Amino acid sequence: MKSRNRTLTILVVLTLIVLTIAYVLPVYVVLVTSLKTPAEISQRQYLLLSSNLQFKNYAQAFKLILPALLNSTIITFSVTALCTLVGGLGGYYLSRTRTRFSMVLFVMVGVAMYLPYQVILIPLVQLMAKTGLALTHLGLIGSNLILNIPLASVLMGTFFLGIPRELEEAAEVDGASKIHIFFRVISPVAFPAYVSVIIIIFTQVWNEFLLALTLATPRTQTIQLKLTEIKGTFVALYNLQMAAALITLIVPLVFFLALSKYFIKGILAGALKG
Question: How many domains does the chain have?
Answer without folding.
Answer: 2
